[in-house]
Design brief:
The protein is mainly alpha-helical. The longest helix has 24 residues. Helix 2 runs antiparallel to helix 4.
Protein backbone atom coordinates (compact mmCIF):
# COMPACT_ATOMS: atom_id res chain seq x y z
CA UNK A 1 0.00 0.00 0.00
CA UNK A 2 2.75 2.44 0.93
CA UNK A 3 4.75 1.66 -2.22
CA UNK A 4 1.71 2.09 -4.47
CA UNK A 5 0.78 5.34 -2.74
CA UNK A 6 4.35 6.64 -3.05
CA UNK A 7 4.50 5.59 -6.72
CA UNK A 8 1.32 7.55 -7.47
CA UNK A 9 2.39 10.61 -5.46
CA UNK A 10 5.79 10.77 -7.17
CA UNK A 11 4.02 10.99 -10.52
CA UNK A 12 1.27 13.36 -9.34
CA UNK A 13 -1.38 10.82 -10.40
CA UNK A 14 -3.71 11.41 -7.44
CA UNK A 15 -5.54 13.93 -9.58
CA UNK A 16 -6.52 11.07 -11.90
CA UNK A 17 -6.96 8.26 -9.40
CA UNK A 18 -10.45 9.07 -8.24
CA UNK A 19 -12.74 6.34 -6.92
CA UNK A 20 -14.55 6.31 -10.27
CA UNK A 21 -11.37 6.00 -12.31
CA UNK A 22 -9.81 3.42 -10.01
CA UNK A 23 -12.93 1.26 -10.14
CA UNK A 24 -12.94 1.48 -13.93
CA UNK A 25 -9.23 0.61 -14.11
CA UNK A 26 -9.87 -2.35 -11.82
CA UNK A 27 -12.47 -3.84 -14.15
CA UNK A 28 -10.20 -3.31 -17.16
CA UNK A 29 -7.45 -5.26 -15.41
CA UNK A 30 -9.93 -8.00 -14.49
CA UNK A 31 -10.86 -8.25 -18.18
CA UNK A 32 -7.17 -8.55 -19.07
CA UNK A 33 -6.91 -11.43 -16.59
CA UNK A 34 -9.87 -13.19 -18.19
CA UNK A 35 -8.26 -12.88 -21.63
CA UNK A 36 -5.51 -15.25 -20.51
CA UNK A 37 -8.09 -17.99 -19.89
CA UNK A 38 -10.43 -17.33 -22.78
CA UNK A 39 -11.06 -20.47 -24.83
CA UNK A 40 -9.04 -22.71 -22.51
CA UNK A 41 -10.44 -25.99 -21.34
CA UNK A 42 -10.72 -26.26 -17.53
CA UNK A 43 -7.76 -28.65 -17.35
CA UNK A 44 -5.62 -26.20 -19.35
CA UNK A 45 -6.51 -23.34 -17.03
CA UNK A 46 -5.32 -25.40 -14.05
CA UNK A 47 -1.98 -26.27 -15.69
CA UNK A 48 -0.47 -22.99 -16.88
CA UNK A 49 3.03 -22.76 -18.26
CA UNK A 50 5.61 -20.84 -16.25
CA UNK A 51 5.43 -17.96 -18.73
CA UNK A 52 1.63 -17.85 -18.56
CA UNK A 53 1.77 -17.87 -14.75
CA UNK A 54 4.02 -14.81 -14.84
CA UNK A 55 1.60 -13.04 -17.18
CA UNK A 56 -1.40 -13.97 -15.01
CA UNK A 57 0.57 -12.88 -11.93
CA UNK A 58 1.11 -9.46 -13.51
CA UNK A 59 -2.63 -9.06 -14.09
CA UNK A 60 -3.42 -10.22 -10.54
CA UNK A 61 -0.88 -7.71 -9.22
CA UNK A 62 -2.56 -4.91 -11.21
CA UNK A 63 -5.94 -5.94 -9.79
CA UNK A 64 -4.55 -6.00 -6.26
CA UNK A 65 -2.86 -2.62 -6.63
CA UNK A 66 -6.00 -0.95 -7.98
CA UNK A 67 -8.11 -2.60 -5.27
CA UNK A 68 -5.78 -1.35 -2.53
CA UNK A 69 -5.62 2.14 -4.08
CA UNK A 70 -9.42 2.29 -4.33
CA UNK A 71 -9.88 1.20 -0.73
CA UNK A 72 -7.28 3.75 0.35
CA UNK A 73 -8.95 6.55 -1.61
CA UNK A 74 -12.27 5.77 0.09
CA UNK A 75 -10.69 5.27 3.53
CA UNK A 76 -11.86 1.65 3.69
CA UNK A 77 -9.94 -0.79 5.86
CA UNK A 78 -9.66 -3.55 3.29
CA UNK A 79 -8.54 -6.21 5.76
CA UNK A 80 -11.48 -5.47 8.06
CA UNK A 81 -13.88 -5.38 5.10
CA UNK A 82 -12.63 -8.78 3.90
CA UNK A 83 -13.00 -10.22 7.41
CA UNK A 84 -16.54 -8.84 7.71
CA UNK A 85 -17.46 -10.22 4.28
CA UNK A 86 -16.18 -13.69 5.21
CA UNK A 87 -18.36 -13.62 8.32
CA UNK A 88 -21.37 -12.69 6.18
CA UNK A 89 -20.51 -15.51 3.77
CA UNK A 90 -20.27 -18.00 6.67
CA UNK A 91 -23.83 -17.13 7.66
CA UNK A 92 -25.13 -17.08 4.09
CA UNK A 93 -23.44 -20.36 3.11
CA UNK A 94 -23.33 -22.63 6.17
CA UNK A 95 -21.19 -25.76 5.95
CA UNK A 96 -24.13 -28.07 6.40
CA UNK A 97 -25.59 -26.81 3.11
CA UNK A 98 -22.44 -27.17 1.03
CA UNK A 99 -22.27 -29.70 -1.78
CA UNK A 100 -19.19 -31.41 -0.33
CA UNK A 101 -20.95 -31.95 2.98
CA UNK A 102 -24.02 -33.47 1.28
CA UNK A 103 -21.80 -36.12 -0.31
CA UNK A 104 -20.61 -37.36 3.09
Amino acid sequence: NIKAKQFVEERDWNQFQTAKNLSMALIVEAAELVEHFQWMRPDESDALTTRKKVEVGDELADILIYTVRLADSLDIDLEAAAHDKMEKNRKKYPIEHSLSQRKL
